[in-house]
Design a protein that fits this description.
Blueprint (H helix, E strand, L loop, with lengths): L1 E2 L1 H11 L10 E8 L1 E3 L2 E3 L3 E9 L8 E9 L10 E4 L11 E7 L6 E9 L11 E10 L8 E7 L8 E3 L5 E2 L2 E2 L3 E6 L19 H12 L8 H4 L19 H12 L10
Parallel strand pairs: 1-8, 2-14, 4-15
Antiparallel strand pairs: 2-5, 3-4, 5-10, 6-9, 6-11, 6-12, 7-10, 8-9, 11-15, 12-13
């Protein structure tokens, strides 16, 4: 499905004829894997942005060219962007192909990645379409905690457009709900103890069972070492928790907190 951009550019330009803009469609950020709380992303694991396309125009979409820029206003660095398409049967939508063009994906300054595609005999993206269509993934080293990272729309070479084509029915300029900016933080949120990494960030018996299984029955390792380091031993403020910081004292601390009114787990750094 993913092909070099040069062929796509020459064919798509045929569609991009001058005409009045029509009712807008929208590309928006649906959700983020790796967002711990609103406005914060977790440094370390892969972070994936899911992009939704809504064709709110009155015509089917026969071609599109849209770019996205990832940057840090305060000089943070990240792993090079990786783009992909959602599995929605693109062969029955854009039979001319779907094209991903990563540009300047160096992990610093500003990375740009373009997405485009077009239909030849298939119907394209029909009016009323509303699905997640694209993903952009990266990761941020824990050393970048506290830095800000943003995803925004962007023109991108070689086509140089942010545009949708409806062939003889003209073109439209899709909306965008960004930019979206996040502060990179550690995976540990609030106080320690959410060993099983549940979305509600609750500390309960399942966390104790998870820790026991990991320590004594070769169970799955915690996704976040900081949450399992209940007593906060090892790293100093700003440091990074690791498997070496997890021992029997953490289990004892958790049991005391849950069953004998012991002190709460230590705050995350």
């Amino acid at each position: 499905m993913k092909r070099p951009a040069s062929l796509f550019t020459s064919i798509l330009l045929v569609f991009l004829i001058a005409s009045p803009l029509m009712a807008q469609g929208v590309i928006s950020l649906d959700h983020v894997d790796g967002e711990s709380v609103p406005g914060q992303i977790v440094a370390g694991p892969t972070i994936t942005f899911y992009l939704r396309l809504q064709n709110g125009t009155v015509y089917d979409l026969l071609g599109s060219t849209n770019g996205f820029r990832f940057y840090s206003p305060d000089g943070g660095i990240w792993s090079p962007l990786v783009g992909d398409t959602a599995n929605i049967g693109w062969g029955e939508i854009y039979d001319g192909g779907v094209y991903i063009s990563p540009l300047s994906v160096t992990g610093s300054g500003s990375d740009t990645i373009g997405f485009g595609g077009f239909a030849m005999v298939k119907p394209g993206i029909q009016t009323g379409f509303d699905q997640i269509v694209l993903t952009i993934s990266t990761s941020i080293d824990p050393s970048q905690n506290g830095k800000t990272f943003c995803l925004d729309s962007s023109y991108y070479a070689p086509a140089g457009y942010w545009l949708w084509s409806h062939s003889s029915n003209g073109t439209s300029l899709p909306g965008w709900d960004g930019p979206h900016c996040y502060v990179a933080t550690g995976c540990c949120v609030g106080i320690r103890g959410n060993v099983n990494n549940d979305a509600a960030d609750e500390i309960d018996i399942s966390d104790m069972v998870y820790l026991v299984d990991y320590m004594f029955t070769s169970g799955t390792a915690p996704e976040c070492w900081g949450e399992a380091n209940i007593d906060g031993s090892g790293p100093v403020s700003g440091g990074t928790d690791s498997a070496d910081d997890i021992d029997i004292s953490d289990l004892v601390f958790l049991v005391d907190y849950m069953f004998t009114s012991g002190p709460p787990p230590v705050d995350c750094f």
